[in-house]
Specification:
The complex is a heterodimer of chains A (399) and B (688). Chain A contains 15 helices and 3 strands. With 399 residues, chain A is mainly α. In chain A, α4 runs parallel beside α15, α5 runs antiparallel to α6 and α6 runs parallel beside α8. The N terminus of chain A is likely disordered. With 688 residues, chain B is of the alpha+beta class. Chain B is 38% helix and 18% strand. The termini of chain B are far apart. About 4% of the residues of chain B have low confidence. Classes of the chains: A mainly alpha (399), B alpha+beta (688). The interface between A and B is large, with 78 and 64 residues.
């Protein structure tokens, strides 16, 4: 892949020039928008997790701080690391990806929590880690490496399908592993990378049609098979179907699947403009709101700080995402452009899905809210992403 | 699964739309750039370095637009939830955290006219706990030991949800005071265990006045439904009592009749709960409001006399050989105002059997024919042929319509052939009474006198149904309006009724015959009356034609106990009807006849009343039904010159009125005037 090599070489030169420059300032080393958004989000999340820890023994405040500490270290390491060589290692990255996906099934490492085999116990340290968080990043990297080969325009259907196939591998693997939410994150960020790599509009639309058609077909077959077999569990797990049905009609069944959604809606809605204040969030304190420190943390935040708090949070996310897009635009390397775009795609889906499910816009899946949700795996990996973006800004920004 | 199908259909429509748009846009080989400025640039120009950035500008605009769209969507939805519908969700959040549980209110007591407690509430100490105590098995075991109950039973009671999930669940009732004291002293060990003062119905006099008092029971599904329908239709909006499943309500007698007064208003406790439903605190409490105490017109002494008199008379009947004599009724009323002073019906039941729920075995026994339907209040619900006790009213009819004026006489030979020899009828006295006028006819209860009257009514052109009209004028055939449930209205038969009632029969069989008239004129045949109707009608005779509506409620006691909050007599005129007697002569003729019944007709009867200081007037009756022993009636009022009390007694299959039922009325009079009967019982008197 000579063109990619060339791009990497030229950007290296560029960085060296920039680093040696006497005009090198702090703002050239660190993108301020990303930094401010990151610190703001971490601070906001810390306050929320602290308030959750008052009533919920599962939300350990010290563990949250530990996650932030490890994340900050990871970010600083990444900031100092030049990852350009990764652009040429797409096959290796894909292999790493698949290993990571199936790591939780390795006996001795596997940890099962909340009915899902998605964690591994890291030897020596003893911390539990969710490799799928890292899979998201690795997938973004190798999709970007592949996409960068085409210099902004994919000319043949064969090449387009090849890209789609490469994305389908981790996507299907994560589905098999049992994490539908993360697989959708991977799918959305990968798909945005493919589109930004210069895929033809007709191909993208045709792919979309095929996917929707397939999903419809699976749903239809499921209901037919259910009708014949009658166990309601044939193709799609019952709980997944229930979540979907409850999303379509939240009031349908408030006792089981609809209960979580209903309680979340009440928490968000009852927050009003300024919220109930720190420690007064009755929905989570009395235990009505489930998973108030992880998947439904946005509901807790909205109940505590109201519309004002939610607005600040969304503003911070917007600052982060638009700053990242800015970094991508300013970036002189196609590979890093696509990496940044992949990150934006990842956040786009995670934020929309997580907040959307709290307010009834999206079906319920178990996706953490970046930088806010309790959970070290997500926190470390998200901080890592910040480090990568800062590293890209430091080395590849065309000033 | 309809939602699932909806998703499938929506998906297919979307696919069709995309495919359609692809076909429509065929030939336009646009890249996914949306780059209008640089779209026509030759691809070769998209080279290295910054030019690449320019080429990507359109794609980044699209990406930025997507991000902006996402934030806008989220903000719009958040605005609508947190700013527009915030109040709605606020309400839901509060509803989430609080539950209202109710505390029952004691029912009002039922007193006699002098304030004696006929029904009161017994304090019952109950040990209760919230449902979440079930998780503390050690404590549950401890409670079981202290209460002396099996662990399983305690656990079952704690988990039982019939009182509502958030209410305290009853573990045990009627707990010994020493046990309660132990629990209260060791409150620390028994956290989450509560002692509650409960009340239960208690009947200090056992079965006394059971038919008046009635009984209580859990509100039935039908009653709840009826209430719901009333609320739905808006008719019952004024009623402040709203029943819940499990409430104790009056099911018979006064308990049912004055349910609105007796029922208390339950208290409400608002408690906060967590997501699992465990109670975490108490927010507010509205204390329960006890029901109103009510005073009945019953006089404990007279009530007891009625019951004992009835039992005494039944006993005499059985001694006289009427083995089936078990059931009967006896009622004592104040003629001047309609107050029922005593009301007895046999057999009796024990209302305390209904406290805490009656067993189904006992219930079916109480409703069986073999046990004589003890739940039936025979005074108001029992319908019997009146027999000769109706003769005074027949006499009024004969006098008023000129059918049988005071001067007319009939010669009784014991066999009456007024309707022809083929339809000959016996007088009860087969040897005949000789020649009698109407007054004598009443005194001697001579049937031929009234046969003549009945026959002449039948053939009278102007008033062929004057007899029935007079009966109705005295209130027969219609309810008296007493404030007790399930009153029967009796029956005054006439031609129209017979035609209707026997509609399956031939016209000939349905025709109104002279024989029908001669039957009802002496109270036989198809006529039906209740003991209370007869008592009310005789009270009317005693009062010169003015009947008072019989009633059982005297007053509702004001809440602070200082007096009566509500008096029955103040709530409007209770005059039932005035049987407008045309002339005082008619009245005095009948009354003289009734006095003769007591003092002239039979020496054995007279002997029992001669030892009373007051004069008594009255009438006996003996109803005849095929295959059964005679039904015995005796009705009196006293004092004859200034009437106050009317007493009516009926014995089913009790024999002859004057020799059996008479003793019940005499015993009641004996108690009222404290002049017990000291004349030996003679059961040979067969006068009717």
């Amino acid at each position: 892949m000579p063109p990619a090599k060339g791009a990497a070489a030229s950007s290296l030169k560029h960085v060296n020039k920039k680093l040696s420059s006497s005009r090198s300032t702090f703002r050239q080393q660190v993108h301020l928008g990303v930094l401010i958004a990151w610190i703001g989000l971490i601070a906001f999340g810390t306050v929320i997790i602290w308030s959750a820890s008052l009533t919920n023994p599962e939300a350990s405040f010290s563990r949250h701080l530990l996650g932030i500490g490890l994340g900050a270290c990871a970010a600083i390491v990444m900031w100092n690391l030049n990852l350009s060589n990764l652009a040429n290692l797409s096959s290796v990255l894909m292999a790493v990806d698949i290993v990571l996906i199936f790591l939780p099934f390795v006996p001795g490492l596997s940890v099962t929590a909340k009915g899902m085999t998605g964690w591994i116990k890291i030897p020596l340290i003893g911390l539990n880690f969710q490799p799928v968080e890292l899979v998201k990043i690795v997938t973004i990297f190798y999709m970007s490496a592949l996409g960068a080969q085409y210099h902004g325009s994919i000319d043949s259907v064969k090449e387009y399908l090849k890209l789609c196939g490469m994305l389908a591998v981790p996507f299907i693997c994560v589905i098999i592993q049992g994490d539908l939410g993360s697989s959708l994150v991977i799918f959305v960020s990968g798909a945005i990378i493919i589109m930004m790599s210069g895929a033809r509009k007709e191909w993208v639309l045709a792919t979309l049609a095929i996917i929707i058609g397939l999903v419809s077909l699976i749903l239809a077959t499921d209901s037919i098979v259910d009708g014949i077999v009658g166990d309601g569990n044939s193709l799609i797990q019952d709980y997944q179907m229930n979540r979907l049905l409850v999303f379509l009609d939240p009031e349908a069944d408030t006792s089981r699947a609809g209960y979580n959604l209903q309680q979340s809606l009440i928490a968000v809605g009852s927050g009003g403009f300024f919220g109930k204040g720190l420690g007064n969030a009755t929905q989570s304190a009395a235990g009505f709101l489930p998973e108030s420190h992880t998947d439904f943390v946005f509901a807790l935040l909205s109940e505590t700080f109201g519309f004002a708090g939610a607005f600040v949070l969304l503003a911070l996310f917007a600052l982060l995402m638009f700053s990242t897009i800015r970094v991508a635009i300013k970036c002189d390397s196609l590979f890093y452009k696509l990496v940044c775009v992949g990150f934006v795609g990842m956040w786009l889906f995670q934020i929309f899905e997580n907040i959307g499910m709290c307010i009834g816009l999206m079906p319920i899946t178990g996706i953490p809210l970046p930088f806010i949700s309790f959970g070290s795996s997500s926190m470390i990996v998200q901080c890592l992403v910040i480090g990568i973006i800062q590293s890209i800004w430091r080395r590849h920004a065309a000033q | 699964m309809s939602a699932q199908l909806l998703v499938v259909i929506a998906g297919l429509i979307l696919v069709a739309a995309i495919v359609g748009s692809l076909i429509f846009m065929r030939g336009y080989s646009g890249r996914f750039t949306f780059d209008t400025k640089n779209g026509t640039r030759p691809r070769a120009a998209e080279g290295e370095g910054n030019t690449q950035g320019l080429a990507y500008k359109g794609r980044f605009t699209l990406l930025s637009a997507g991000v902006a769209a996402m934030f806008t969507t989220l903000l719009v939805k958040l605005w609508s939830m947190q700013m527009v519908s915030s109040d709605h969700y606020d309400e839901l959040a509060v509803q989430n955290q609080t539950r209202t549980v109710t505390t029952s209110a004691p029912r009002g007591r039922i007193l006699d006219r002098n304030g004696n407690e006929l029904v009161r509430n017994r304090a019952s100490l109950a040990v209760t706990a919230y449902r979440d105590l079930r998780e503390d098995t050690v404590l549950v075991r401890h409670i079981a030991n202290v209460l002396g109950m099996p662990y399983i039973a305690v656990m079952r009671n704690i988990q039982d949800n019939t009182e509502g999930a958030q209410a305290r669940h009853t573990i045990a009732t009627d707990v010994r005071r020493s046990t309660v004291a132990y629990i209260q002293e060791h409150a620390g060990e028994f956290s989450g265990v509560y002692i509650e003062d409960r009340t239960e119905r208690e009947y200090p006099y056992g079965t006394l006045a059971c038919h008046v008092l009635g009984y209580t029971g859990t509100v039935t599904q039908e009653q709840l439904q009826t209430q719901q329908e009333l609320i739905d239709s808006g008719e019952d909006s004024a009623s402040s009592i709203v029943y819940q499943s499990g409430d104790i309500v009056g099911q018979a007698g006064v308990e049912s009749q004055y349910e609105n007064l007796l029922q208390g208003i339950r208290g409400e406790q608002t408690v906060t709960v967590d997501s699992v439903g465990n109670v975490t605190g108490q927010v507010g409490e509205v204390p329960p409001r006890p029901g109103t105490d009510i005073k009945l017109t019953l006089d404990l002494t007279i009530q007891r006399a009625c019951e004992e008199g009835l039992a005494y008379a039944i006993n005499i009947s059985q001694q006289a050989g009427y083995a089936n004599a078990r059931n009967g009724a006896c009622v004592c009323m104040d003629c001047t105002n309609g107050e029922i002073l005593g009301l007895a019906s046999a057999p009796v039941f024990d209302p305390s059997a209904f406290v805490g729920g009656i067993s189904s075995d006992l219930w079916s026994e109480l409703n069986s024919e073999e046990s004589g339907n003890p739940l039936l209040n025979r005074v108001v619900s029992g319908q019997y042929m009146s027999a000769s006790t109706i003769k005074p009213f027949s006499a009024f009819a004969g006098l008023e319509y000129g059918i049988y004026p005071a001067t007319r006489t009939t010669t009784c030979t014991g066999w009456w052939t007024g309707n022809g020899e083929a339809y000959g009828k016996w007088c009860w006295n087969h040897s005949g009474h000789g020649t009698l006028n109407l007054q004598g006819g009443i005194t001697w209860s001579c049937d031929p006198v009234f046969y003549d009257m009945g026959k002449d009514f039948y053939y009278d052109k102007d008033n062929p149904e004057g007899l029935q009209e007079m009966f109705r004028r005295w209130g027969l055939g219609s309810k008296t309006g007493v404030d007790l449930p399930a009153e029967a209205s009796g029956r005054v038969p006439d031609a129209a009724w017979k035609n209707e009632h026997f509609s399956d029969y031939s016209a000939e069989d349905r025709a109104w015959n002279p024989g029908d008239m001669t039957n009802i004129v002496i109270g036989q045949g198809d006529i039906l009356v209740t003991p209370l109707q007869m008592a009310t009608a005789y009270a009317g005779i005693a009062m010169g034609g003015l009947e008072q509506t019989p009633h059982i409620l005297l007053s509702a006691v004001s809440r602070d106990g200082s007096g009566d909050a509500y008096l029955y007599n103040e709530t409007g005129s209770k005059e039932r009807l005035t049987a407008s007697i045309n002339s005082d002569d008619d009245l005095s003729l009948v009354k003289a006849g009734l006095r003769g019944v007591i003092y002239e007709e039979s020496p054995s009867c007279a002997a029992h009343f001669n030892n009373l200081s007051v004069k008594v007037e009255g009438k006996s009756g003996t109803g005849e039904r095929s295959n059964e022993d005679p039904y015995a009636w005796f009705i009196v009022y006293a004092p004859a010159d200034d009437p106050k009390y009317v007493i009516a007694c009926l014995l089913e299959e009790g024999g002859f009125g004057a020799s059996t039922a008479m003793y019940a009325t005499r015993q009641v009079l004996g108690v009222i005037y404290n002049e017990p009967d000291n004349v030996p019982v003679t059961t040979t008197d067969q006068t009717r």
